[in-house]
Amino acid sequence: MLKCPKLYLTTALVAGLTALPLLADPLGLGRAALPEEIAAWDVAVMPDGRGLPPGHGNVYDGEDLWIDHCAACHGDFAEGAGAWPPIVGGRGSLTAARPLKTVESYWPYLSTVWDYVNRSMPFGAAQTLEDDEVYAIVAYILYSAGLVDDDFELSHENFSEIRLPNESGFYIDDRAVVEFPIFKQDPCMSDCGDAVSIVARAQELNVTPEFPVIRYSFSGVSLVEAPVAEDAPAPQIIEEVQLAGLDPALVAAGETAWRQCRTCHQIGEGARNGTGPALNNIVDASVGQVDGLRYSPAFAEASAGGMIWDAATLDAFLENPAGLIPRNRMSFRGIRSAEERAALIAYLTSHMD
Ligand code: HEC
Ligand code: HEC
To answer: Minimum mean pLDDT among 19-28, 215-224, 242-251, 295-304: which range?
Structure first.
């Protein structure tokens, strides 16, 4: 949540202001910032609604805006798409082994949602939305979270009436009262318990869980969902899927997954370079060789080293772009699911001349 230029500027401005009275006199430079200048930077919205600009927006308009500006990454219903974060769902999961933290399940105040969307979304085109558009999109998020009906309109006037489900999950740190007294008791230094005896060993107890793994092979190359750590036990293969030729269902799945790529890449007839290169004929091509794109030095180096986009290399890149080619310019966090990566590779393969 720190990707926010305005926040940095506000902090810098405040720091500057504190220093000003000392400097202004002797140097005769500058002047104190005007209240309206400060107000222009002071954009934080507080839980009680302070800082909100006047405005309103309803669920219907919010849905249209969402489809245009947000759905490619966060899913049509804010449920998340591929590696991009879900915005709703996960209620009640915070105490589970794998909590799903979303606006619906985790965020305490709606003001943070408004402020965050206003400052930093859509990703890559931050601060392009009008105030009323932000209200409408936030109304749509509330609707997707099941917190309001479809005829709901959000405005600066009813804003502070909305409560998010996990508001009471946040409370003032009470450890000084609840925990410190326990730790402050005198520690036992001798004869504290019965003699210790070893009753079993971890290995025999089989405490290391086995992660089920699906192995996909494609174009003769095996793509295996890697075990989490290098020294982790070998993956237990529970299913072997052969992707000989191009499975239409897999290509279709790849087309769906492609939604995460299309903000930056084009593919198919007439595809042009965008933020990233056009990706026709990329499978088995050399790295960084699409005409007309200015690649990063990291890509140029990988290219000079002879790296080829075969299925295994693509798979490693899509799983963790920065892991395969450090300091490259594809700002994409990667795709955890081996199945989804295999589908994308099939989709790329379906775009070969
Ligand atoms: C190109 C992909 C992309 C688009 C389009 C996009 N987002 Fe995001 N969004 C992200 C990424 C990536 C993050 C996580 C950023 C981070 O953690 O720093 C994120 C985070 C968020 C979060 C915070 C989620 C959390 O729990 O931390 C919200 C809320 C959000 N986006 C709303 C929106 C809205 C509303 C739009 C449309 C106006 C939008 N996003 C468009 C990629 C996108
Ligand atoms: C935020 C923009 C962005 C997104 C999203 C993105 N890419 Fe990229 N991609 C790039 C850029 C930029 C490069 C070139 C990187 C460089 O020069 O370091 C690139 C490079 C690539 C390359 C290597 C191309 C070549 O000519 O060497 C492949 C393959 C690729 N991306 C696939 C994908 C796929 C598949 C997805 C979706 C899962 C995706 N990218 C998502 C921006 C993006």
So the answer is: 215-224
The one-letter amino acid at 78: A
Give the residue, 153 or 49, on which the prediction is more confident: 153
> Which residue minimizes the CA distance to atom 38 of ligand 2?
261
Cβ of 125 below 6 Å from ligand 2:
no
* Prior bond of 235 cis (ω within 30°): no
Rounded to whole angstroms, the Cα distance separating 289 from 324 reads: 17
From the list 212, 211, 213, 215, the residue with the least C-alpha distance to 241 is: 215
HSE at residue 202, side-chain half, CA atoms within 13 A, is 3
- Rounded to whole angstroms, the Cα distance separating 232 from 211 reads 10
Residue 12 has pLDDT above 70, yes or no: no
Whole-angstrom Cα distance, residue 256 to residue 250? 10
For CA atoms 226, 227, 230, 233, the dihedral sign is negative
Cα of 173 vs centre of ligand 2, distance in Å, is 44
192 or 284: which carries more pLDDT confidence? Answer: 284
Nearest residue by C-alpha to atom 34 in ligand 2:
261
Average pLDDT over residues 33-42: 85
Mean pLDDT, residues 141-164: 95
Of 345, 181, 129, 158, residue with least CA distance to 251? 345
